[in-house]
Amino acid sequence: MSDVFDARHLWHPYTNVTQPGPTHKVASASGVRLTLDDGTEMIDAMSSWWSTIHGYCQPDITKAIKDQADKMGHVMFGGLTHDPAIELGKKLLAVTPPDLQRIFYCDSGSVSVEVALKMAVQYQHAAGRLGKTGFATVRSGYHGDTWKAMSVCDPVTGMHHLFAKALSAQYFTPKPPIRLGEAWNPDPEENGVGVLRDLLAESHEDIAAFIIEPLVQGAGGMYFYHPQYLNELRTLCDEFNILLIFDEIATGFGRTGKMFATEFTDVTPDILCMGKALTGGTLSFAATMTTDHVAEVIGNGSPGLFMHGPTFMGNPLACAAACASLDLLADGVWQENVARIEDGLMSHLTRLRDLPGVADVRVLGAIGVVEMDHNVSADQAHPICKDLGVWLRPFGRHIYCMPPFVTPDEDLAQICAAMGHLAEVL
Questions:
Q1: Sheet order of strands, 358-364 included
Q2: Which residues pair with 335 in a beta bridge?
Q3: Residue of higher predicted confidence among 144 and 165
Q4: Contact by Cβ (8 Å): 55, 47
Q5: What is the structure's pLDDT at 167?
Q6: Binding site for substrate, residues?
Q7: Measured between alpha carbons, how far is 270 from 332 in angstroms, rounded to an integer?
């Protein structure tokens, strides 16, 4: 039952306030379970929008936040610094591609994309390429809800099409046509590289950067594509003086089975965005990393300063939480867990392929997707999920899960059974 005050006054994401959908009031959360105010327990198959990779109330992260709160909750990052920020920087350098040496802390994933886009334009300006102010990307992508980030989301199937006339016009190429697991076709007309080259050759003087979600398109369609596309994209970006931005907000920190999806490729982006699981899902925080070359070109140009500075940049509490989360990932147990979850999802979900209405089933790491041949309703799913004891939030044609890495096998089986039930009834 939705809370009356909540329904009257609190505006939830992607919600019509005149017809607010059902909400469940969470009283507490621990491990992989949410406990509602009426005592009902639900397994969280969503990791709170893909972020709570270690589960809720993880003791080491909780302790790190409490200890830091006793010392300093926040201090401005302009002209000041602190140990949590420095320590986190060292830990990030240890797990990201070695060419990425400069770290800009920010507030959220969307903001990290804004920072990356702004960084690319300022880089091109400092390099004397003043006309390079636009961006290119692939269709069916999603990069966030803030203003510039909306402009590089899919203009037709994305959530932001109604803002089309108010947004900067960007350059779009078809999504990579060869799926992950399929054989790479070297023919540029078949693998998507031909049309990509045509776009960049024609419009490169206007394009500052190409932004893409590596290997996995998230909220744009849960689509997995061949990593060779990214290798080819890197070559073309170099040829046309276009920076390459990898948006790893959804894929970073082990979700695909590797620490970053970038590791499936042979290349390194010029700029990498991260967020979501950075703090283990405890506090909103993100980072944008780039190379010494990009940073130094900006620094040697005019005005030299990078023109961005969030109030809560480098928040000590968030930095402490992120350090604790990375320490948990450092022991490598997450790799065994993600591999175990991937095997479990494959075993349980592939059985759903033959259900009426199921168009596709796909799995990568701790990501399981049942794509339907019709749209499914999150509002209709919510009460069913409560009865099933599994929290799922479908969108578009997708019933999917991204469970915490610590999800045990019996809970994973229950998640998959719930996904199958939703596929049958929605």
A1: 358-364, 367-372, 398-401
A2: none
A3: 144
A4: no
A5: 85
A6: 49, 142, 276, 309, 393
A7: 27
For residue 113, give Cα distances in angstroms to 197, 247, 274, 303: 24, 7, 9, 22
Q: What single letter denotes the amino acid at residue 150?
A: M
Q: Are 229 and 223 in contact (CB under 8 A)?
A: no
Binding-site entries: 49, 109-110, 142, 247, 276, 309-311, 393
Question: What three-state secondary structure class fits 376?
Answer: coil
Q: Measure the CA–CA gap between 378 and 426, rounded to whole angstroms.
A: 9
For residue 168, the model assigns a pLDDT of 84
Asked if 59 contacts 291 with a C-beta cutoff of 8 angstroms, the reply is no
- pLDDT reading at 1 higher than 70: no
Q: DSSP state, 305?
A: S
b/e map 99-137, b = 16+ CB within 10 Å: ebbbbbbbbbbbbbbbbbbbbbbbbbbbeebeebebbbb
Q: Which residues contact 402 (CB under 8 A, 6 or more apart)?
A: 45, 46, 47, 50, 255, 366, 367, 368
Give the pLDDT mean for 350-366. 97
Q: What is the pLDDT of residue 301?
A: 95
Show which residues are catalytic: 14, 142, 247, 276
Annotated binding residues for pyridoxal 5'-phosphate, as ranges?
109-110, 247, 310-311
Maximum distance among all Cα pairs of the chain, rounded to whole angstroms: 62
pTM of the predicted protein model: 0.97
Question: Which of 152-161, 283-292, 392-401 has the least mean pLDDT?
Answer: 152-161
